[in-house]
């Protein structure tokens, strides 16, 4: 393991820290202060392919759990995150291979989605060599889905928990399903009936929303293959039940995207939802887009607002700062982190305020480069 402190930047008032994971095997610490984004540290060599960053806060401290999408000898990595956003005290453990997304749930449990492995697994924390797999759900398909090139087998792509903490959801891009699990007090999962999407949609990631003016809970899922976003109503019982309410394109008639585009990340903030589009180049060569929607505060119905620049190529992830005023966008192939303003009242994204190349530029045909970015 190698630690490198790139600068001795002391965060001033208003400074914020980020982490960015690169497919080359490095996780970078970044600092944003006013209009400047700076690399302040890097951890290299612990993992072959860090793919996703999951954060937790306990007893006044923060931890970063980083999944590994590599094949043989995959490693899970856990770090303490200090007040300057540096990664310390690594704990490494053997991991299932090909983990593309992860979540924490219950009283100290970890769930991972294995895209190529067609499975979902769980472990008890801490993630060291003494943490065996607790649950493993392996899926198969009798025949390919409508998109035969991408749906030849199940491809779980994300794991996330509902607002009550009682259920874990897993969008399966290959099977056109949203898999649902009830979380038991032991940390074990009980599988519930899955919700089926429209054929060929390829659900990828999801985010929940709760109304502040009614009892309504909604789920919003980005469909990678359909280049769309679906609003699902949520009903609670022994199992969580979903019903499709509305599906909108992640593009507009004026900017319809092009062949080969792929919707990627989704986040909900207050009464707004955002989706990143990869490969559309709606704002020029290697300049992809973010689609913004408003959410009706009572019903959860979506309304398209605008398409804005992602200020990078193949934006695999983005993250909204907890105070809502900024969005960090990670261009995977361009390997850059762009910081844009966000109006908390209107939900609209504003001007680019900082941009930094982080790690080596990727190859669009290999899907490498910057895999994840989060505010810490």
Walkthrough of the structure:
The chain is mainly beta. The chain has a single domain, classed as Methylamine Dehydrogenase, Chain H (7 Propeller), CATH 2.130.10. Strands 1-4-3-2-29 form a five-stranded antiparallel sheet, with no helix packed on it. The protein has a four-stranded antiparallel sheet with strand order 5-6-7-8, with no helix packed on it. It has a four-stranded antiparallel sheet with strand order 9-10-11-12, with no helix packed on it. InterPro entries: Cycloisomerase_2, Haem_d1_sf, Lactonase_7-beta_prop, WD40/YVTN_repeat-like_dom_sf. One of its GO terms (molecular function) is 6-phosphogluconolactonase activity. This is Putative 6-phosphogluconolactonase.
Query: How do the helices and strands follow one another from N- to C-terminus?
Result: EEEEEEEEEEEEEEEEEEEEEEEEEEEEE
Tell me the radius of gyration. 19 Å
In terms of DSSP E residues, the strand content is over 45%
Shape: globular
* Number of separate helices: 0
How many domains? The number is 1
Helix content: under 10%
| CATH topology value | Methylamine Dehydrogenase, Chain H
How confident is the prediction overall: mean pLDDT? 95
Low-confidence spans: pLDDT under 50, at least 5 residues?
1-12
Which oligomerization state do the chains in this entry correspond to? single chain
Any idea what the CATH superfamily is called? Answer: YVTN repeat-like/Quinoprotein amine dehydrogenase
CATH class: Mainly Beta
- Main pleated sheet: 5 strands, antiparallel
Strand order, sheet with most strands:
1-4-3-2-29
Alpha-carbon distance between the termini?
Answer: 22 Å
Q: What is the number of beta strands?
A: 29
Quickly give the CATH architecture.
7 Propeller
What is the structural class? mainly beta
